[in-house]
């Protein structure tokens, strides 16, 4: 702690010293300061280049310079600095980078397959939001809010995030960036660009390595929890054989390898060792429906943070098995934590046919394989002796595996005939995924693993966008997409025996047999009216529809007849229909104070119908351990909800004088559940009418403000300075639709200061200056112990732990 205090004191002293170098406000600004106002940013929210202040869509654009000056490196950083945006990293007993859901405006997806906001690179879809960290120094990031189905298709009915690559300008240059900080934080990045054949063929290559130790200690063995490391490489080649033709080829590889996640459980039941000694104490403060639980704002955990993360011979044997595997042993994590391999490639072609027509072609490919080994019970259970465990004590190691692959193509023609302009296009997306996992609760064998069959989707779409200028001020846009989704699910390579006729005819199904197939056809329109009141003010209003893809519940078919029937009674069907969204929105964008302030405001009302929700059951499975009947975790999905959402959002950037820039924003995102059904949550809470409740994992209130000082150093040529402070706020969110447990509000302050001279710069920074410890995620879960006594209802809350105060120094040199 003394080292941290000394570092903060040094930073403050440095900032004061740097500020003293300028005796009066400077007219010239650093590159970061000069780019703070977004009025000149061009975005592609409607598949064509438009000034952000003239685009009648709610879009937040953050330039590469702004990402650096705010210290945005991860999806969590991006969410913290963007009102109305949350990241949920908690699923299936773990809270880590293997699972990251983007949540816009409270539209919380209930499963990894029900993504409501998708990521794109240069307009090409990408498989995982985790790939955001692999894009080194992008030109900008566009966050589009509200349904984007008309232009971007699948999984965008809450919004879309588009990362736009920086394009080489044809001159040789290189940039080296290095960072070192507390808790072994480090980052090394190299960017090189230049000509291959003059301006006709150029390239940009980047390589980056990042790593850090976690902020929390595992009380079991003293190791840190939350360690992360990533290595990425990208290559962009740009060909301009003529002034009218541009071809871009982009490739990216990434490897993420993390340690055990920073998480713990807040228990509502005691964990008792043989002999009656309580080893982990309940923090229950209420009883609901006869069940002890945690109500209100979640307390600080009282049991410490621990996990069984030692690699035993039994677990090593488990990871070496090559039967029923989704990810081969050669590519599997060999420790507790995550190992992920990501591959992405895409190409774009833009050809200007004439002054009125242009053609664009896009194609992309993604492959993501990952495995994560977790301690599912979530505590050091070495004191819970068990004669049936190969470890000599109760333990619940669990491996989760995924293999996702997709490819896409798109073609469009943009046109501009004076008063009428727009785009027409068509797209195709193919995606397939495998999932599986296993546990070495007893001896490790092939039977320890399960491998699901192939889930496949094909999406064909045709879209258009037409804008007509009725006057110089009034325009009307009509947009829409006709989309055909074909979904299929197949039997795994080990075959399948179905014990019941509840969902499909009982019997034996050979490997690769088609289990379920459905085709869905939908049209998603959007109408926008915008009025340019003056050169400094635009008003707009829109109405839009959105569709989220359907799903299957084929995983239930491997269960016993009794469990299949119980799942059907709980509301599961073989096919889950697509979700629907209707969104109404009004907004304003413009400038004030002679252009020194830019701003945007939006208000929306949305109706989310046929909402896909998880159904998670714990059912006795007829097997016994130590005389106690074991349970099966049965998960599936159902169209079991509807939600009304409404809110207001705004952002601004203001330069009152040349020395100072102030930027910020705020959002109120209200979620009003109208209908919801969950046997698991009802078993805990006794609630059957959820009307008026809020959606989980989303903040109702959020805001951020940044104050930056900067300018030339007096008396020094080509030398600039800056000092910046950011306050990011997210209100607490609920752990489930029952709204019983809630996280505390998160207030995080980041400070950064630096000097630049010529092509070199150095910065010092502290993130989470006041060491805010608000939980990053919270999900209702179970108290897991040797007798499985508390598995019939939720009896704990699984929480993700934040990264604590971090200080560091970063330098950058351009050649």
From TrEMBL:
Entry's Gene Ontology BP terms: iron ion transport
One of the record's GO cellular component terms: cell outer membrane
Compartments it resides in: Cell outer membrane
InterPro entries: Beta-barrel_TonB, Beta-barrel_TonB_sf, Plug_dom, TonB-dep_rcpt-like
Keyword Ion transport included in the entry's annotation: yes
Domain TonB-dependent receptor plug: 53-160
Any matching Pfam family: TonB_dep_Rec_b-barrel
Extent of the signal sequence: 1-28
Record membrane topology: Multi-pass membrane protein
Keywords carried by this UniProt record: Cell outer membrane, Ion transport, Iron, Iron transport, Membrane, Receptor, Signal, TonB box, Transmembrane, Transmembrane beta strand, Transport
Major location (coarse): membrane
Chain ranges of the TonB-dependent receptor-like beta-barrel domain: 336-769
PANTHER family: FERRICHROME IRON RECEPTOR-RELATED (PTHR32552), TONB-DEPENDENT OUTER MEMBRANE RECEPTOR (PTHR32552:SF81)
Family as reported in the entry's similarity comment: Belongs to the TonB-dependent receptor family.
The protein, known as: TonB-dependent receptor
């Amino acid at each position: 702690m003394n080292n941290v205090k000394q570092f903060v004191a040094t930073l403050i002293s440095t900032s004061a010293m740097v500020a003293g170098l300028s005796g009066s406000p400077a007219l010239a600004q650093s590159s970061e300061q000069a780019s703070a106002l977004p009025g000149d940013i061009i975005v592609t929210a409607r598949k064509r280049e438009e000034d952000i202040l003239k685009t009648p869509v709610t879009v937040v654009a953050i330039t590469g310079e702004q990402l650096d000056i705010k210290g945005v490196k991860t999806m969590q950083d991006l969410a913290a600095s963007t009102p109305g945006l949350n990241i949920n990293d908690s699923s299936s007993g773990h809270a880590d980078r293997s699972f990251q859901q983007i949540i816009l405006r409270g539209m919380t997806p209930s499963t990894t397959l029900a993504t409501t906001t998708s990521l794109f690179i240069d307009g090409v879809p990408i498989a995982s939001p985790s790939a955001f960290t692999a894009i080194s120094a992008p030109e900008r990031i566009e966050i589009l809010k509200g349904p984007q189905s008309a232009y971007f298709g699948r999984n965008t009915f809450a919004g879309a995030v588009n990362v736009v690559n920086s394009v080489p300008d044809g001159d040789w240059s290189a940039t080296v960036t290095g960072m070192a900080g507390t808790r072994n934080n480090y980052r090394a990045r190299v960017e090189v660009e230049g000509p291959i054949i003059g301006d006709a063929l150029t390239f940009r290559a980047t390589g980056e390595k990042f790593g850090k130790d976690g902020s929390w200690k595992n009380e079991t063995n003293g190791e840190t929890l939350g360690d992360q490391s990533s290595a990425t490489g990208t290559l962009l080649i740009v060909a301009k054989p003529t002034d009218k033709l541009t071809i871009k080829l982009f490739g990216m590889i990434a490897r993420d390898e993390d340690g055990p996640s920073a998480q713990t459980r807040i228990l509502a039941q005691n964990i008792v060792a043989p002999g009656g000694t309580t080893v982990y104490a309940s923090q229950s403060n209420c009883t609901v429906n006869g069940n002890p639980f945690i109500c209100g704002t979640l307390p600080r955990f009282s049991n410490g943070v621990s996990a069984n993360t030692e690699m035993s011979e039994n677990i090593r044997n488990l990871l070496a098995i090559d039967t029923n595997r989704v990810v081969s042993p050669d590519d599997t994590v060999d420790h507790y934590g995550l190992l992920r391999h990501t591959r992405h490639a895409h190409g774009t072609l833009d050809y200007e046919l004439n002054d009125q027509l242009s053609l664009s072609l896009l194609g992309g490919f993604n492959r993501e394989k990952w495995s994560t080994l977790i301690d599912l019970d979530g505590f050091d259970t070495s004191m819970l002796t068990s004669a049936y465990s190969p470890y000599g004590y109760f333990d619940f190691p669990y491996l989760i595996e995924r293999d996702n692959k997709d490819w896409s193509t798109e073609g469009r023609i943009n046109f501009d005939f004076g008063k009428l302009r727009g785009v027409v296009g068509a797209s195709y997306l193919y995606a397939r995924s495998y999932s599986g996992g296993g546990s070495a609760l007893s001896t490790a064998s092939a039977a320890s693993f399960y491998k699901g069959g192939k889930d496949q989707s094909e999406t064909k779409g045709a879209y258009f966008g037409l804008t007509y200028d009725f006057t110089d001020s009034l325009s009307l846009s009509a947009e829409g997409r006709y989309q055909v989704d074909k979904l299929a699910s197949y039997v795994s390579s080990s075959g399948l025996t179905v014990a019941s006729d509840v969902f499909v005819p009982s019997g034996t199904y050979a490997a690769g047999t088609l289990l379920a197939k459905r085709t869905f056809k939908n049209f998603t329109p959007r109408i926008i009216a915008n009025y340019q009141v003056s050169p400094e003010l635009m008003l707009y209003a829109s109405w839009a529809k959105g569709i989220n893809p359907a799903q299957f519940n084929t995983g239930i078919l491997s269960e016993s007849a009794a469990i299949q029937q119980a799942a059907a009674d709980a509301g599961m069907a073989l096919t889950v229909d697509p979700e629907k969204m209707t969104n109404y929105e009004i907004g304003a964008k413009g400038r004030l104070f002679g252009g020194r302030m830019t701003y945007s405001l939006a208000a929306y009302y949305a109706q989310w119908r046929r909402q896909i929700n998880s159904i998670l059951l714990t059912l006795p499975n007829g097997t016994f351990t130590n005389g106690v009947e074991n349970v099966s975790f049965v998960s599936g999905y159902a169209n079991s909800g509807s939600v009304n959402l409404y809110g207001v959002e705004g952002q601004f950037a203001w330069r009152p004088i040349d020395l100072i820039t102030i930027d910020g924003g705020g959002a109120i995102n209200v979620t009003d559940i109208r209908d919801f059904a969950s046997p698991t949550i009802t078993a805990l809470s006794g609630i059957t009418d959820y009307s008026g409740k809020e959606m989980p994992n989303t903040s109702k209130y959020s805001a951020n403000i940044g104050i930056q000082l900067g300018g030339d150093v007096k008396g020094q040529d080509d030398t600039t300075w800056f000092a910046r402070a950011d306050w990011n706020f997210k209100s607490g969110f609920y752990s489930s639709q029952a709204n019983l447990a809630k996280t505390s509000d998160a207030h995080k302050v980041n400070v950064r200061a630096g000097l630049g001279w010529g092509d070199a710069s150095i910065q010092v920074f502290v993130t989470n200056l006041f060491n805010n410890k608000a939980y990053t995620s919270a999900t209702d879960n179970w108290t897991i112990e040797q007798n499985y006594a508390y598995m019939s209802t939720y009896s704990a809350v699984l929480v993700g732990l934040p990264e604590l105060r971090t200080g560091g120094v970063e330098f950058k040199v351009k050649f």
